[in-house]
Design brief:
Pfam families: AAA_14, DUF4143. This is ATPase. The protein is α/β, with parallel strands linked by helices and 444 residues long. The chain folds into 2 domains: 137 residues, P-loop containing nucleotide triphosphate hydrolases (Rossmann fold), CATH 3.40.50; 292 residues, no CATH class. It is 43% helix and 17% strand. Strand 8 and strand 9 form a beta hairpin. Helix 4 packs across helix 5 and helix 8 packs across helix 13. The radius of gyration is 23 Å and the shape is globular.
Length: 444
């Protein structure tokens, strides 16, 4: 079964660039990196995949010099396939098991630029810390779980997706139909293996089993990148961070341990891309990152489906009464929006989400996400219930001169007033994504 996704489209565009560099796919385990490359390989005359974890007989090739001509020749012999620049896609998977192969990418760029070379690895970021990635000699592409739009396209709902992209305000019947799909997506999440199972079987129990397997995979990885003394802290954080979903993260809520004991393990989980920070910013100037306070942050788990599995939440209501669940599960809805914003952010660097909060005795206010769009600062307030009261959003707009308008994201249909644009949950991708790239999901 083929899942058409945005990663594949970006890979296709990279493959057609005249001045491309070797490409490194980065992101957490099981988000579909290898799958997308294998699909791209079908468009080449031949495709050679070197999995350094599975096929360790390739490792000695990189123990000598890093001359790409010699490397290609020896890989060709072992793989029993010709490697022809312009016609072959060479894929180094699990490249973290061969750090010298990471270093070799710069020489492929310098001495064999016509050869298409892609590298990926489930724990690549840890190898990067040891050997470094050749700056200026490679490109990076950050991969996230599949988005709601990708889910619609994969599940045969291209016509619905086309209406979302082309129509600002949809009929109530269509609006409610799409909200049902939002409910299904929020139950499943965007992990490709889970979505493949759903599309094939339409069985929530099978999907729950996939969630459990993926969570166990992440737990098993702890031993690969952590010292034995860190394992208990990793497990404790992994199980408990989702309980602070939507809140400012506090180490004091994680058992009896101190921040100095827990913080190194949190950094490991962030490096593994299992969690993402949403950092506080005062958002009074451009860039908003310069106004950030790294000590104040929220944490998002990689995927909303996995988040609920980790919290042992009952998922059946998402399928039976999705609109009621959208109202009842406000923190999950907020996490969904963050997941979408990350997936549609700039793909060539690791993106950082921000939020804003004002704490005072007189009044408090909070904006769930703050984005920078060119020279404008865009505040986004996520509402799981139908409401016209947007005190935090209006307060932000009054005190931030770089913000001409704000966005409310909710289950309401689309509407626009003088300073507020209200966007339905299902249109988050069209708010920040490139229309041309998203439309590629609709066409062969």
């Amino acid at each position: 079964m083929v899942l058409k996704n945005l990663v594949y489209q970006r890979l296709k565009e990279w493959s057609e660039e005249m001045d491309r560099k070797p490409l490194i796919l980065r992101g957490a385990r099981q988000v579909g990196k290898s799958y997308a490359v294998q699909k791209l390989g079908e468009s080449f005359d031949n495709f050679i995949e070197v999995d350094f974890e599975f096929s360790q007989n390739f490792l000695p090739i990189f123990e000598e010099d890093l001359d790409p001509q010699r490397i290609v020749q020896q890989i060709s012999v072992l793989a029993k396939q010709k490697i022809i620049p312009g016609k072959t896609l060479l894929f180094f998977d699990e490249i973290q098991f061969c750090p010298r192969a990471i270093t070799s990418l710069r020489y492929f760029y310098e001495k064999m630029p016509k050869l298409h070379v892609i590298a990926a690895g489930s724990l690549l970021e840890f190898a990067h810390e040891l050997v470094g990635i050749p700056v200026g000699r490679v490109q990076s592409l950050y991969v996230h779980p599949m988005t709601f739009f990708e889910y619609l396209a994969a599940d045969g709902e291209g016509l619905l997706l086309e209406q979302i992209l082309k129509e600002e305000k949809l009929s109530e019947v269509v609006h409610k139909k799409i909200l049902k799909h939002v409910g299904i997506y929020l139950a499943l999440g965007g992990m490709p293996e889970v979505l493949r199972s759903w599309i094939k079987h339409k069985d929530p129990l099978r999907c729950s089993e996939k969630h459990a397997t993926l969570l166990d995979t992440y737990r098993q990885d702890f031993q690969r990148y952590a010292k034995k003394s860190n394992l208990k802290y990793l497990s404790l954080l992994f199980e408990n961070i989702p309980r602070q979903l939507g809140e400012k993260f506090k180490f004091s809520k994680i058992g009896e341990y101190q921040k100095r004991e827990l913080e190194p393990s949190l950094e490991l989980l962030l490096t593994a891309n299992i969690f993402n920070k949403v950092v506080h910013t005062s958002a009074q100037g451009i860039p908003i990152g310069a106004e950030a306070n790294p000590e104040r942050f929220k944490l998002l788990f990689i995927d909303v489906g996995l988040t609920q599995a980790l919290l042992s939440l009952e998922l059946s209501a998402w399928f039976i009464q999705p609109e009621a669940e959208l109202v009842n599960k406000g923190k999950i809805v907020e996490a969904f929006v963050g997941q979408e914003l990350l997936a549609y952010s700039e793909v060539n660097k690791k993106s950082q989400l921000h939020y804003w909060q004002r704490d005072s005795r007189e009044s408090s206010a909070e904006i769930d996400y703050v984005l920078q769009k060119k020279q404008q600062i865009l505040p986004i307030e996520v509402k799981s219930v139908k409401t016209m009261k947007l005190k935090s959003l209006h307060s932000f707009l009054k005190t931030h001169s770089h913000s001409e308008y704000g966005v409310k994201i909710s289950i309401d249909p689309y509407y626009k007033s003088d300073h507020i644009e209200s966007i339905p949950l299902y249109k988050v991708g069209s708010l920040v994504g490139e229309l041309k790239t998203i439309e590629s999901l609709l066409f062969p």
